Amino acid sequence: MNSQPIAIAANKIICKYRSHDKKDSADAFYSSKETEILLKRYRLKQPARVKSINAKYHLVTNVEQLRKLLDPLIDTIEKFGIDTETTGLDPHTSKVRLVQIAVLKHPVLVIDLAAIDQTGLTPLKQLLASNCLKIGHNLKFDLMMLKSTGFNLEPPYFDTYLEYKVLTAGLKRSNTLETLVQKLLRVKLNKSAQTSDFSRSLGKEQLQYAANDAAVLLPLHRQLTRHLSKAKLTATAQTEFNCLRAVAQMELNGVRLDLDKWQLLKQDLLQQQARLEEKLQAHLVTRNCSTDTLLAELGIRVNLSSPKQVVAAFNRLGIDVKSTSVRELIPLAQDYPVIRWLLEYRSLTTKINTFSVGLPQFIHPVTERIQGHWWQMGARSGRFSCREPNLTNIPRDIFTRRCFTAAPGNVIIKADYSQIELRLMAKASGDRRMIAAYRHGEDLHRLTASFLFDKLIENIVDEERKLGKIVNFGLIYGMGVAKFCLTTAKKHDIYLSKFQASQFRQKFFLLYEGVAAYHQRIRREWQAGTRISYSLDGRRRVWSKRTRPTLNELLNHPIQGTNATIIKRAIALLDSTLLAKVPQVKLILVVHDEIVLEVPRSLADRVARCLSDCAIRAAKPILAPIPVEVEVKVLDSWGDR
């Protein structure tokens, strides 16, 4: 259907409507308000024009060209866009083929490293190491690939990928360069050459593709900088940029897994699994199966992976269950040991399949270490995530973590923030009792336990303190009774009745009135329909118009988001103070509240002091007047105590 006549007619109606009194008249078919709505509905939106790009570029294939083009830039420009094209995606087996440099009012320089003698690349190395602002998209990849090829891309950085993640944290958005350029610059990038072979002779299409990707970075930086400033997220983005080099190096470093220890652990877990299975079979199987057709068909064993068979066996024992879901089994676990054994068996089976069997498959053939893929803003709160494998999800038990060891001659140094989330809750809520406890050096878990059990703090035993710790960390995020029972059982093998959990919950919020008031304030915001949350340092999370946050999410983000910022500031301080200056010191893991290094034994004491100092300096401005405590240990393995 031709829309042009409709557009002309709509414009006539609009002009006529504007020239008359907009008050309702008796003979009007539509009221003035209805007319406004109709006009808005029928106004035609002009489709956004998207243009293609063919950036001018200069192919650099010899030392003379490189010097002539780069020498004038090194001390005169303030910023440049940078991109790379590589022979593959693995920095341990692939190399950089092209380096593209985009400078304002200049053709893009496409530098072919394969055509230039390595001894003549000094001008490029000087530019990459200069104080100019380096603008790129997903700079972590470029940093790693350049490092493996012998180049150091030094800060300062502006990563358009991370910047857009900061702006859209919490939303499901594509963050590819192609998407950002089309959305913000109205430019269509031709990505057909993206998967082509850059290890051989290069064609014009590949060179143009490389030039285009670099050419859009400077205008994209200009647009995104304005968006950051308007959203008041410049400081958050800068935090991400400041720790970028350290994160790239952490991914290159990898972590060492002792396969001999791992094999022994696997055998031990399999033996535990076998013993549990025999115990379960002894209780679930009834040899006299004449009254139960299904069990008669099963023979003498129950398939523990079959919900149907397990339910039938439980029913025969007089346990009234309709499924084997965790939600249904956990409330019964306190009364039926066989249910606890089944839950333990399942947990053990998951651990064996996910970690004991799966983890060694990720050992890299070149480095002989596990090279996880780290994402700075992998979680919606801004916290780190890791994939292939997920190193942030390694079980906390000492036997598993002792398999992660330092190379010969090295040690592991681990910094762990003490009760950082509780301290942040004390800061966010202003809870006087919590703040006073921390300022006077009291043990908050014992304080909570003393109130739960109506005992003096000095009389609290370790098991009671453990329960106080579980209550503290569970209830600061508003966990309900049912979920609290579920979490306590799954994570800590402590089975509480709903009545016990309810009593603990009531006592917790009576003890910490400031936390209770904070929860009520967030609840009111949630009921009012808010779709935005800020951390204590201004890190933002948003929800789309089609989704609504849960109350737990709104309670969670101010704490988790601030925690993410603290960890990243600590890493940035550590990078500028130590990591960049002493390459033997390697950042290998960032797991929740822990920062883990691998260092030569001879440097251990000095590095431990530096790590502690950086961690405290990162958190102190946010937490003040609440003191910061960081526990730093020098160990032979990650799991040592």
Task: Write up what this structure looks like.
With 641 residues, the protein is an alpha/beta fold. It folds into five domains: 4-42; 51-242, 2-Layer Sandwich (Nucleotidyltransferase, domain 5), CATH 3.30.420; 259-360, Up-down Bundle (Taq DNA Polymerase, Chain T, domain 4), CATH 1.20.1060.10; 369-420 and 561-635, Alpha-Beta Plaits; 425-546, DNA polymerase, domain 1. It is 51% helix and 12% strand. The protein contains 26 helices and 18 strands. The strands form six sheets. The protein has a six-stranded mixed β-sheet with strand order 2-5-4-3-6-7, with helices on both faces. Helix 18 (420-429) crosses helix 19 (432-439) and helix 22 crosses helix 23 (498-511). It is globular, with a radius of gyration of 30 Å. Mean pLDDT is 90; it is low at 1-6 and 287-291.
In short:
It holds the Pfam family DNA_pol_A. This protein has 641 residues and is an alpha/beta fold.
Helix-strand layout with pairing:
Elements: H1 4-19, H2 32-42, E1 51-52, E2 57-60, H3 63-74, E3 79-86, E4 96-102, E5 108-112, H4 122-128, E6 133-136, H5 139-149, E7 157-159, H6 160-167, H7 177-185, E8 187-188, H8 204-215, H9 217-231, H10 234-242, H11 244-253, E9 256-257, H12 259-284, H13 293-298, H14 307-316, H15 326-333, H16 337-357, E10 373-375, E11 385-387, H17 398-401, E12 404-405, E13 410-417, H18 420-429, H19 432-439, H20 444-452, H21 462-475, H22 481-492, H23 498-511, H24 513-527, E14 532-534, E15 540-542, H25 551-579, E16 586-591, E17 594-600, H26 604-623, E18 630-635
Parallel strand pairs: 1-8, 2-5, 3-6, 6-7
Antiparallel strand pairs: 3-4, 4-5, 9-12, 10-11, 13-17, 13-18, 14-15, 16-17
Helix pairs in contact: 3-4, 5-11, 6-9, 7-9, 10-25, 11-25, 12-16, 15-16, 15-22, 18-19, 18-24, 18-25, 20-21, 21-22, 22-23, 25-26
Family: Belongs to the DNA polymerase type-A family.
GO molecular function: 3'-5' exonuclease activity; DNA binding; DNA-directed DNA polymerase activity
Keywords: Coiled coil, DNA replication, DNA-directed DNA polymerase, Nucleotidyltransferase, Plasmid, Transferase
